[in-house]
Amino acid sequence: MAGRGGSSWSAAQRTGWLATYSLSIVALVLYVVTQIGAAIAGWFEFVSEQEAHGQSATVLGSDGYFWTFLEQTMQNWQSEFLALAALVALSAVLIHRNSSNSRDGPDELQQRIQDVERRVTRLSKAQRGAAS
């Protein structure tokens, strides 16, 4: 399949991998920055708690920060996936009128097209009747 100029390359292929995968790259960078920020903030909170209990703060080990950070991350992911699952389940059942993702959008558009076709047909008949 040749595009303009005889090239079979799509526009995405011509712009390079950075433009092709920009959404994934930005999402990954935001995720990494957020996780690093959460790890740093969590570390300071962990150190403060450990000092308040007279214990030393460690990253690894049975009482290390790694396990606290992992628990917080898993709780966050659990709540995000639960919210996403609820949104998907509800959007499969409920409708948001005039949304491009709702099934009522194409149905209403088809109805409008049929209304216009009926009006054009009536106008054509009226003009033919007036010309006779």
What topology emerges from the helices and strands here?
Elements lengths: L10 H5 L1 H4 L1 H31 L12 H29 L10 H28 L1
Helix pairs in contact: 3-4
Approximate helicity band: over 70%
Shape call: elongated
**How many beta-strand runs?**
0
Our count of helices gives 5
Task: List unreliable stretches of 5+ residues.
Answer: none
Oligomeric state, counting identical vs distinct chains: single chain
Overall number of domains: 2
Order of helices and strands: HHHHH
Largest sheet: none
Proportion of β residues? Answer: under 5%
Structural class computed from helices and strand pairing: mainly alpha
Euclidean distance between termini CA atoms: 52 Å
Mean pLDDT, as a whole number?
79
CA gyration radius, whole angstroms = 30 Å
Structure description:
- There is one protein chain.
- This protein is mainly alpha-helical.
- It folds into two domains: 1-93, no CATH class; 95-132.
- Helices cover 73% and strands 0% of the residues.
- Helix 3 packs across helix 4 (65-93).
- The longest helix is centred in the N-terminal third of the chain and has 31 residues, at 22-52.
- The radius of gyration is 30 Å and the shape is elongated.
- The mean pLDDT is 79.
List keywords for this structure.
132 residues, mainly alpha, 2 domains, 5 helices, elongated
Question: What's the gist of this structure?
Answer:
This protein is mainly alpha-helical and 132 residues long.
